[in-house]
Amino acid sequence: MSLRSVFSRLRSSRKTPLDAFKDKHNPARQTNDWRYYLVSFLVILGLLLSALWLLMLIWYQLGAYNPITWLAYALVIGLLTSLLLVKTKPKLASKIINNTFHRSFKQRTIVTWLGGLYAAVWLLGLGWFFSIEAKQNRDWMPEVSQRVAYKRDAANPDLITFINVRNFDWHTDEDATAHWETRTVDMSKLSGVDVINSYWMGPLIAHTLVSFRFEEDRPLAFSFEIRKEDGESFSALAGFFRRYELSLIASEERDIIYTRSNARGEQVYLLPVSHLQQSEVRSLFESYLIAADELNAKPAWYNTLTSNCTNIIFYMARIVSGERLPWDYRIWVSGWLPNYLYDVGMLDANPNNSGQPWSMDTWYERAHINPKVRGFDNQANGSRFSAQIRQGIPIPPLADSQAKADAEAKSAAKASND
User: Fold this and answer.
1) Which of 32, 178, 198, 393 has its Cα between 20 and 30 A from that of 275?
2) Where do transmembrane segments lie in this chain (predicted)?
3) CB-side neighbour CA atoms (13 Å) of 310
4) DSSP-assigned letter for residue 260
5) How many Å from the N-terminal Cα to the C-terminal Cα in the chain?
């Protein structure tokens, strides 16, 4: 044996008790150990979360009864388990692998191969996810079977004729007589905007609709919804995995609000947005026309977090109103949208110009639709339903100028926060 080999073995020999004692009381060593465990924890957490995402993608895209689902599950879970076993129990993993292949593999080699194989499988799943395209031609449920379209009058661009405006007669939450109608509205007659929140799963989650008011005409409501296939049900988790196409519905209020407040028994609230100019209302209305054009040209996916019924409206409204609608976490917690509007001054804290401002609790009490339309005859005129759901709610006038709208909104926001 050469002297070089002897010195090499001496350098790599086990530490003496004195060395171990020094390491134990060495702050730098302890810091390195702390960082090592933190990095290891983050790596393991990242692996678990990435595997969970991939497994859920496979589940929601292929379904529980597809044999490919279970083969993919076995592959992903097997790779992840092997990788974690090598990292946490290297001696046991090496023994199992070496006994299986009848040769000696180093831990680093095993980790490299398993990590590379897992990364390849995960990237393959990611590529598959982005390759899934939304479609227009599926067996849709009746209430989302048609796509709204429109035409402008050649002589008067303010006259918009909508095709496929929904006006169903709802008998139960699942049974309705279908009516798809054509309706013409005059954008020069726009007089305001109402936000409707329908709570269907606790106080945090609500479906948000927008209804446009017109002078001497009944309102027209718009709703971004999932385009469910026949027999399909909604899952918030599935909404993260390109499971539902996005649909824009233009509807009469006696249909799209009645079905929630009366047929389904959801708790529905109507909130008139204050301190807007007609130009802002008109621009928001035009945004819905653009959205209809885009969805008709190319279908899009619904996403529970980034492309849902609430934040799509916020994105469009912010283009119109800019900094008057600051970013806020409540944009993603749809049930708190009314509180957000109240705090930024878009829901008037003093709607009657009286000395006693309205609290948010008062707004919720006055804006609650369900008691106003309990037992409503859905065969009645649509204008009657729209009038009933606005009982006891002051309808704000449009602002004369941008400066006045800004000033009033700031004053309302201050009053709401006092």
Assistant:
1) 198
2) 36-62, 68-86, 110-130
3) 24
4) I
5) 86
CA–CA distance, 294 with 292 (Å, rounded to integer)? 5
Q: How far apart are CA 327 and CA 321, in angstroms?
A: 12
DSSP symbols for 297-317: HS--B-BTTTBSTTHHHHHHH
Strands 245-251 and 176-177: unpaired
Is 316:291 a contact under the CB 8 Å cutoff? yes
Asked whether 271 and 338 are in contact (CB, 8 A), the reply is: yes
* pLDDT tens per residue across all 418 residues of the chain: 554 554 455 444 445 544 544 454 555 555 567 787 788 788 889 999 999 999 999 999 999 999 999 999 999 999 988 887 776 665 655 555 555 555 555 666 767 888 889 999 999 999 999 999 999 999 999 999 999 999 999 999 999 999 999 999 998 888 999 999 999 999 999 999 999 999 988 888 889 999 999 998 999 999 999 999 998 988 889 999 999 999 999 999 999 999 999 999 999 999 999 888 898 899 999 999 999 999 999 999 999 888 887 778 877 777 767 667 787 888 788 888 899 888 888 888 887 776 678 889 999 999 999 999 998 887 766 688 999 999 999 998 888 877 777 777 777 667 666 6
Does the predicted model carry a pTM greater than 0.70? Answer: yes
